[in-house]
Amino acid sequence: MSRLTLWLMLLTYAELIVVALGSFIPHDARERSSESKRASSTVSQPVIWEDLADIEIIRVDDTFYYSASTMAYSPGAPILKSTDLQNWEYIGHSVPSLDFGSGYNMTDGNTAYVKGIWASSLKYRPSNGQCSPTGPWTQHAVFEGTCYYDCGLLFDENDTPQVAYGSTNIQVATLSSDLTSQVSNSQVFSYDKYVEGSRFYYINGFYYILGVQPGAAIEYVIKSSSPTEGYTGGNVVANAPSCPVSNGGAPHQGGIVDDPQGNWYYMAFCDAYPGGRIPVLASITFDDDNFPVLSDVNSWPSTVEVPLDKNVLSSPTGTDEFSGTTLGHQWEWNHNPDETAFDVDDGLTLRTATVTDSLYQARNTLTHRVLGPASDGTIEIDFSNMKSGDRAGLAMFRDVSGWIGIIKTGESAQISVWKDITMNSDWTTNSIGALETSKDISETSVFLRASADIRPGGAATAQFSYSTDGATFTDFGTTFSLNTTWEFFMGYRFGIFNFATDSLGGSVEIKSFDLALSD
Ligand SMILES: *[C@@H]1O[C@H](CO)[C@@H](O)[C@H](O)[C@H]1NC(C)=O
Ligand SMILES: *[C@@H]1O[C@H](CO)[C@@H](O)[C@H](O)[C@H]1NC(C)=O
Question: Whose CA is nearest to atom 8 of ligand 1?
Answer without folding.
Answer: 99
